[in-house]
Amino acid sequence: MLYVPSASEPKNFQKGKIGLKQSNPERKRQRRTTLRLLYLLLILVPLLSTATYTWFSLSRAPKVNTMALYINTPVGLEITWTPEDEESWGQNLNYAEYADSETILKPVTYSDKEKTFYAANFGFDGRMSDIAYALTDEQNANRDDGHGYYLKMTCYVRTDENVKVSLSRAYENSGTYLIGTPIWNSEEILHNDGGQGAQSAVRVGFKITHYDVDGQQVDEPKFIIYEPNCNYHINYEQAGQYIPTASIDGTENLISEDQLIRQSSTLWFEMDPVQNGVLVYQYGEFLDDQHLFDLYEDCMAKIEIYLWLEGQDIDCTNEIGKEAQIFANIQFYSENRPDSGMENIETNGKGDRGDDDGHDDDRYDDDFD
Question: Cα(260)–Cα(228) distance, rounded to whole angstroms?
Fold first, then answer.
């Protein structure tokens, strides 16, 4: 059985040596067994990656408390849950109207190679044995029972102009950010962090599919991962650092860099004097270009939004409370992209990739000519 240390054990933990003498044949058999086990462990390393110390050793069930979905649309972008209902198209959607706000989140990880989510199998002692339980939206999304693992919602956007759609920067209680829900503690006269650390391990995924004016699908879905609070960690010694989340596919990160949108930590602080429901926010900045997709005039895109607790994240440990509560605000921003034939202007400003290598972002390959 593969030994998996719990989150509370130090990384340099080693078992003591056994000092019993054994016969030569017995030692030879042991060496052969040890070699076989060594080969087996070498094969398992690319699969388990960092999961041996980041996943929960016991199953916990944080819950999504509130999630809002809004669109900032100065150039005619509309959104709906039900595209066939013409009267449903508008400028904002409320997650509470779509699914139960008590959806259970349990640790899963996304495989870009398999285009699906996987959960860990746990032994009778509560320790993880492997990461091989393939999940499906039909069986494991938006549930509040033992089969619930992650949240999924599907919305549609359309436009009457050529537009570029991005995640909106956060400011003054709007834009895109994710925090632990502030919970008022009347006995201590302060707010508690309802996230209990879960906000450090949550990811939001956008699976985007384009449709033409006739409603025909025109491309393969593209998956982009938004990683909020990417430099906030439960372990204060790691605070301020960005630590990539290794994939079970054997890659350094869950997804390629051009499909990853990182954001620094969003924090809240008490007012002075402390007041119930009154807080000061410090919003995180995007560290990558927050562009999601481009949309042509009179065309439509389907956006499948996933929210999950990433088991491979270094902060996905037993320190996260069972009743963790999360507030997520996802806001889109659209801007006109006229058919001018002009090339994109490279910038190094925050939120516009900021790469120093001078290369264009691959996500703009489908920009308007």
Answer: 11
